[in-house]
User: Fold this.
Amino acid sequence: MPTHYGRGVGRFTYDGTVKVDFDDRVLAHLQVVISQKLRRGEPFPFTWRNDASIGDGRTTVWLHPSASLVYRYSGSRQPAINRAWLEALTQAANSTGGLTLVPEPEPGAPVETITG
Assistant:
């Protein structure tokens, strides 16, 4: 789900053809989770909701260690990382449904178990 919080809007590019805009803060969290999975050689699907301007559907890409991924940030400062959100995103990535954007919990909040 492309998300814009009024901060910098970055871009995630997959294999040079699939491009989607995410808030820099969202993109930073996705980069950490995706990098951890791929560093361990674990392929997985990543799904997001498309912007209404392109049909309001969803897109899924298969992330694997040899995929070409580009994270382009519009802001010059690294966003603060919320460990609780990393845990929630990692749980999603480890589920059978793969990585999806889950709402950001308050820092230090318990992470709900994701099934499926």
Summary: The beta strands are 9-14, 18-23, 44-49, 58-63, 69-72, 99-100. The CA atoms of residues 35 and 96 lie 18 Å apart. Residues 9-80 form one domain. DSSP finds two helices and six strands in the chain.
